[in-house]
Specification:
The structure is a single chain. The protein is α/β, with parallel strands linked by helices and 643 residues long. It contains 21 helices and 14 strands. A six-stranded mixed β-sheet has the order 1-8-9-10-7-11, with helices on both faces. The protein has a five-stranded mixed β-sheet with strand order 2-5-4-3-6, with helices on one face. Helix 18 crosses helix 19. The protein is elongated and about 145 Å long.
Length: 643
């Protein structure tokens, strides 16, 4: 499954656990007051007030000495004065230069009469015909101006405090409810410029698309279903391995139907405070009902939807269970007329609570499996639409050599090929880029490791043993590539993939897989007489295969046709079977592995010349492609038409 890269719809606030797209446009948001702008505005008002009072108020008188004042009185240059105690203010008849070397002139003055002065001031004033008034010549600023100047900083502080108090009250949602996540629900997000995802943007889901067309048709034409008395499933559960495109498929359903899409991860509902998850679930469902018909998508539903009270619960989790209970309640309250469909995704459908999957809630389960060969080719075409491809690129061949890969892995493959082309400064992505990218994805990145000649030779025989036995086993997967270049954790890698997708395996095929996996250890034993730690990963694969053969798939006569070792998700605490049965399983596993190992050693001894030739070619070239490997071993490659 694949799609073009698209932006993730944003959230309206940090505690909102869901995203939405395709919903009606929200009202224009209120402009937020900038703290910085508020402070600068207050400072500007303060400065302008002082400037206005300075320019339009009375100019302050010049402070002069009493001696200078006496001189002006004697000279007859004083027009009028105002005295209050020993403080004297007045006007001159004509301006004079400022005393004490100050530049400029003055015609208004203020001075202080010393208390010890013993002069005839009144007589001199009378003689000089100076007008003595009861009003001050220089008027002090008004009370309002004084209050404004003195109280302005305090008023600013009070205003800021009121503003902060209102913001905090709004943020708290009217009380402690805001702290618990019960704020007023935001309006859904509208992405006007965002292109909705539809079924045209996905591939490899032909069988799944048929299952979901009912949902799309119901959302488009709900009246037709109501007339027939039909009820839409309360929920659709998308189950499948990671990377198969379950989230993308849910978005495509919403885009195809043209309805609002609310998406959230189940883990985002849970907080430490009990009750937050349930509150957020109620909020999400309320928002979806407002804009119905709509789709609610909950990813990784197994996070909160695990079976309650079982052995795996380990005492339970109050917050998780309350969130699950709220989801059950909301879904149980749905009716067909509401037009809200819930889609959930999980890769662990076997651990979900039965109340969640019962009819009326998630009553339809859709399996989303890895794509087949045609699906992989279609996915590669989608992911390479914006990548310039060279003429030698064969996407059909790439699809044939990538069985089992999911849409996410194929998208990563195309991206890795594009990155390699950029590093190599090429104008287009070539077939070599795709091949090297596939090696990196499947085998791991190359390591600059220099091995001693003896260890390098032993690694060549180890990989040649894998490859030769894979070539000789009837019905085995063809060998695609052999390399002794260290990649990832391995010193060498042998890659084998089938020509066509396999969905069921026979006992002979599985035995051939075991023989091929033991080929590296057998080659070291036959050629060098030693066993190294390089077979660790091989033995893990062998153990998993033979355990399934004996304990789960009924391929042992002694154990019988029963599943004595159920899967991990079904296995309870304690023994999975009776001790005697487990001993029998252990004996049968050892018997099958021993028989396969003897067969591997025997075939390598019988084809020692082919083993030596393949190892020498590998030492000379380090990496052998499919045709070169079969040619070096002298084995005819049996091909069959897989189209």
């Amino acid at each position: 499954m694949a799609s073009v890269t698209s932006p993730v719809p944003p959230r309206d606030r940090t505690d909102q656990p869901w995203r939405s797209e395709g919903a009606p446009p929200p009202p224009p948001p209120k402009k937020k007051v900038s703290w910085r702008g508020l402070i600068w505005t207050a400072l500007l008002v303060y400065v302008l007030t002082n400037l206005l009072l300075t320019f339009f108020g009375e100019p302050e008188p010049t402070r002069i000495s009493y001696t200078e004042f006496s001189k002006q009185v004697t000279a007859g240059n004083v027009a009028k004065i105002y005295a209050k105690g020993d403080q004297i203010q007045g006007d001159l008849k004509k301006a004079v230069n400022k005393p004490e070397g100050d530049k400029g002139t003055y015609d208004k003055f203020a001075t202080q009469r010393p208390s010890f002065a013993d002069d005839q001031l009144w007589a001199e004033l009378t003689k000089a015909k100076v007008t003595v008034t009861a009003e001050p010549v220089y008027k002090e600023p008004s009370l309002l101006a004084n209050l404004l100047i003195s109280l302005l900083p305090m008023l600013l502080l009070v205003g800021l405090w009121v503003f902060m108090a209102r913001r905090m009250a709004a943020g708290m949602g009217g009380g402690a409810g805001g702290m618990l996540g019960r704020k007023q629900p935001p309006k859904p997000v509208e992405l006007a410029a965002h292109k909705r995802t539809t079924f045209a943007d996905v591939a490899g889901i032909d069988e799944v698309e048929g299952e979901l067309n009912d949902v799309v048709d119901f959302l488009k034409n709900p009246d037709s279903y109501r007339k027939m008395g039909a009820r839409m499933p309360g929920g659709v559960l998308l189950a499948g391995p990671p990377g198969t495109g379950k989230t993308l498929l849910a978005r495509a359903v919403a885009g195809e139907a043209g309805v609002p899409f609310f998406s959230a991860s189940a883990s985002e509902f849970i907080e430490m405070i009990v009750g937050v998850g349930a509150s957020r679930v109620r909020e999400l469902f309320a928002e979806a009902r407002k804009v119905a018909p709509a789709i609610i998508f909950i990813d990784e539903i197994d996070t909160i939807g695990r079976a309650r009270g079982g052995g795996s619960a380990m005492g339970g989790h109050d917050e998780r269970e309350q969130t699950l209970n709220q989801i059950l309640t909301e879904m149980d309250g749905f009716t067909g007329s509401e037009g809200v469909v819930v889609i959930a995704a999980t890769n662990r459908a076997d651990v979900l609570d039965p109340a969640l999957t019962r009819p009326g809630r998630f009553d339809r389960t859709v399996m989303v499996s890895p794509p087949d060969r045609k699906g992989r080719e279609a996915i590669l075409k989608i992911h390479t639409r914006e990548i310039p491809l060279a003429g030698d690129v064969d996407l059909a061949q790439v699809a044939r050599t990538t069985p089992g890969m999911t849409g996410a892995e194929l998208a990563n493959l195309a991206n890795e090929a594009a990155l390699l082309a950029v590093k190599r400064k090429q104008p287009q992505v070539t077939g070599s880029d795709l091949s090297d990218a596939l090696e990196k994805v499947q085998l791991g990145a190359e390591r600059p490791l220099v091995m001693p000649d003896e260890e390098r030779r032993r690694t060549a025989y180890h990989e040649s043993g894998h490859a030769l036995l894979g070539m000789l086993q009837p019905g085995a997967d063809p060998v695609r590539k052999i390399t002794i270049v260290p990649r990832g954790r391995a010193l060498g890698v042998t890659l084998s993939t089938p020509d066509a997708d396999r969905y069921a395996y026979t006992e002979d095929y599985l035995r051939g897989r075991i023989i091929g996996a033991l080929g590296g250890m057998a080659a070291e034993h036959v050629v060098f007489g030693v066993i190294t730690t390089g077979a660790e990963n091989d033995l893990e694969q062998v153990t998993n295969i033979v355990r399934g053969m004996v304990g789960r798939w009924g391929m042992s006569e002694r154990v019988g046709r029963l599943s004595a070792l159920p899967g991990d998700a079904q296995q309870a605490y304690g023994l999975a079977a009776a001790p005697g049965t487990l001993d029998t399983i252990d004996g049968e596993m050892r018997r099958i592995v021993d028989e396969c190992y003897e067969s591997a050693c025997r075939q390598l001894r019988e084809n020692r010349d082919k083993l030596d030739a393949l190892a020498e070619a590998l030492l000379a070239n380090e990496t052998l492609e499919e045709a070169d490997a079969y040619r070096a071993a002298g084995v005819t490659r049996l091909t069959k038409d897989t189209d």
